[in-house]
Amino acid sequence: MELNTSDLIEGKELLGRWFTHRGRDCVVRAVGKVQETPGRAGNEVGTWQLEVDGQVLERVYGTLDAATRRLAERV
Question: What is the pTM of this model?
Answer without folding.
Answer: 0.87
